[in-house]
Design brief:
Largest sheet: none
Distance between the termini: 37 Å
Order of helices and strands: HHHHH
Shape: globular
Helix content: 55-70%
Radius of gyration: 15 Å
Structural class: mainly alpha
Oligomer: single chain
Amino acid sequence: METTDDPFLFEDYFPSMVERLGAEGFMGELCNGFRLLMDVEKGLITFESLKRNTLQLGLVELGDDELIYMLAEGDLDGDGALSQLEFCILMFRLSPGLMDGSKRWMEDVGGASGIVV
């Protein structure tokens, strides 16, 4: 395994999670992750909720500028916060493995829930 000094190196565990949990179970876990980070009153991930909850999760090395960038990366409607849909889309976009298999997995989720993809 190659070593690196990159503090932002991301190992993509999402494809193995989909295999283990199934598409519907994985989507449930994404929703749980969203709820963990969201502002309960607003139902959105805001800068304040992201900062507060990343500190509680022990991610103390993230600065305000990094948190703002994270929000901006997923904020599709320009409101400065992430809805559950925006969060899930962002998670798919950030996972090369999920992007490769996303059509098949979304069909699995759609079939399980009756949604046509």
